[in-house]
Write a structure and sequence with these properties.
This protein is of the alpha/beta class. It has 22 helices and 20 strands. Bound molecules: thiamine diphosphate (TPP).
């Protein structure tokens, strides 16, 4: 007979779990004791939301579900935003929360909230474990559901009496699960459409960034030589430094990359997930669209493909390339637009103005981050600038959230990235608003002795909303705030802090921080007048849309 909490931990070890991101409560004490005797590393955080963001990012970067653990009621409720983040962002995660004993309780309704019901719309599955005997099966199934396409979060509630119970149950060994392959007829139809296209364009969407697709996608691009652009979350799915990269669609229309999209007569959309803000607005008189994905396309007003290849994306891409390689005379029809598009994006990226332009910040960050370095963005105005201007050449090296688009995830996701990749440079980029939503995790990063730099862009406002307010013609109101002294704040956590005082200092300070190692915060004042000048005035007057 084995104790329930020991069965749980053994089942997690059986899944290869390396970390559990957690804030335990008294209802988790049996689990904590079982973890104490396990190889799994407990990563204590300072807010459950951050634990959830870290677990989700672990799943996103590895393809294996990240695990977080909290207590019942308030602790579990603090996971809801992270659950939605993983659900919309398709990140595999298993959330385990405690609960009072279900068979008899002497605490009446103290702290009791129906967490399983709360989690249901935010997850792929939410279940209360009602017997220790079922733990191995439920854990195996939770990982299967979380990891299989379309990945996402699964919630398991473990009441304390079940955790303390004993049962005789065997672990369920995991096995490799292959996806079904798309039918030949669908591949042949799509190949014929691509062959007869005059101006084809490839689009890489969020699902193209699944870790296991990096190689098959790169091979497809190399073999077919059709120029490609990507959505925000599809950024870095293949070698974006390649001479076929046309840009990132950070806006839905009227950006430079839309010059190519508007001229395309066929878009081969690989892994697009309509959970993302639309990369372009599909119209009935626009280009034809072929959707290639592990799951069918959801039909939206702005996305209704005329053909679909549903099944293992890597296998689909290989079969299409087998049919098309060397037989696409029009493959490079749109490539002539590339230089112009990328040239416009590079404008103002070396200006010495202070406060710094967002373009200069992106440029200088790229300068100090090697190709395998990871930049994790929080949510704010700078996300659009990084999406448009930051070039990536290694898969999953720009982590951004264009799905829930929540503030507060930048620092926790960078912490997860730094844990997984201790030898790579990892940078969190946050606004002064979003940073303060989970800044307490600086303590976690310091305690874990991570090498991590946090860049805080300071404009003393919820800048993106202030920009929208201005674009919509409203008067400036209600979006300004003051900040702590960020340098002193970082130091109070035992991190290092520095403030950029001239344009030239940014890259110097970042480089010094990375070389020194440990946790650093660099604060840089940003000039957001560029938002209006470039993203509204310039694009609306110059870029023609079809
Ligand atoms: C949790 C959460 N609350 C509110 C929003 C809405 N929102 C989006 S961007 C933004 C402002 C972000 O401000 P800051 O982090 O300072 O970055 P900036 O835009 O100034 O660069 C707000 C309030 C959100 N996306 N997520």
């Amino acid at each position: 007979m084995t104790k329930g909490s020991d069965l749980l931990v053994a089942a997690l070890e059986n899944e290869g779990v390396a970390y559990i991101f957690a804030i335990p409560g008294e209802e988790n004490l049996d689990v904590l004791e079982s973890l104490r005797r396990s190889k799994i590393k407990l990563v204590l955080t300072r807010h459950e939301q951050a634990a959830g963001f870290m677990a989700a990012t672990y799943g996103r970067l590895t393809g294996r579900a990240g695990v977080c653990l909290t207590t019942l009621g308030p602790g579990a409720l603090n996971l809801t935003t992270a659950a939605a983040y993983a659900h919309l962002g398709a990140m595999p995660m298993v959330m385990i929360t405690g609960q009072k004993a279900i068979r008899s309780s002497r605490q009446a309704r103290f702290q009791i909230v129906d967490i399983v019901a709360t989690m249901r719309p935010l997850t792929k599955a939410a279940t209360q474990i009602v017997s220790a005997q079922s733990i191995p099966t439920l854990v195996r199934d939770a990982f299967r559901v979380a990891q299989q396409e379309r990945p996402g979060p699964v919630h398991l509630e473990l009441p304390e009496d079940i955790a303390a119970d004993e049962a005789d149950a065997d672990l369920v060994p995991p096995h490799v699960l292959e996806l079904p392959v798309a039918p030949e007829a669908a591949i042949a139809r799509a190949a014929a459409m691509i062959m007869s296209a005059n101006r084809p364009l490839v689009m890489l969407g969020a699902a193209a960034s699944r870790p296991q697709l990096a190689e098959p996608l790169s091979a497809f691009v190399r073999r077919c030589r059709i120029p490609f652009f990507n959505t925000q979350m599809g950024k870095g799915a293949v070698n974006a430094g390649s001479n076929l990269y046309m840009g990132t669609a950070a806006l839905s229309e009227r950006d430079w990359v839309h010059e190519a999209i508007d001229q395309a007569d066929l878009i081969i959309s690989i892994g697009h997930d309509t959970v993302e803000k639309p990369p372009f607005l599909m119209g009935h008189d626009g280009p034809q669209v072929i959707h290639i994905g592990a799951t069918p396309a959801t039909v939206e007003q702005v996305y209704f493909p005329q053909a679909e290849i549903v099944g293992d994306v890597g296998a689909s891409l290989a079969s299409i390339a087998d049919r098309l390689e060397g037989r696409l005379p029009n493959a490079s029809a749109l490539l002539g637009l590339r230089e112009g598009i990328l040239g416009h994006l590079a404008e103002r990226s070396t200006e010495d103005r202070f406060p710094l332009t967002p373009q200069r910040i992106v440029h200088d960050v790229r300068k100090v981050i090697p190709s395998d370095g990871i930049v994790a963005l929080d949510n704010g105005m700078y996300k659009i600038w990084f999406a448009r201007n930051y070039r990536t050449s290694v898969a999953n090296t720009l982590l951004l959230d264009n799905a829930l688009a929540t503030m507060g995830a930048g620092l926790p996701s960078a912490i997860a990235a730094a844990l997984i990749h201790p030898t790579r440079r990892v940078l969190a980029v946050c606004g002064d608003g979003g940073f303060m939503m989970n800044s307490q995790e600086l303590e976690t990063a310091v305690r874990l002795e991570l090498n991590l730099v946090v860049l805080v862009l300071e404009d003393r406002a919820y800048g993106m909303i202030r920009w929208k307010q201005e674009v919509d013609g409203f008067s400036s109101f209600g979006l300004d705030f003051g900040n702590p002294d960020f340098v002193a704040y970082a130091k109070s956590y035992g991190a290092k802090g520095a403030r950029v005082g001239t344009a030239a200092e940014l890259s110097v300070m970042l480089e010094a921080a990375f070389r020194e190692g440990g946790v650093h915060l660099v604060v840089v004042p940003v000039d957001y007048s560029e938002n209006m000048r470039v993203l509204v005035d310039e694009l609306h007057s110059v870029v023609q849309t079809g």
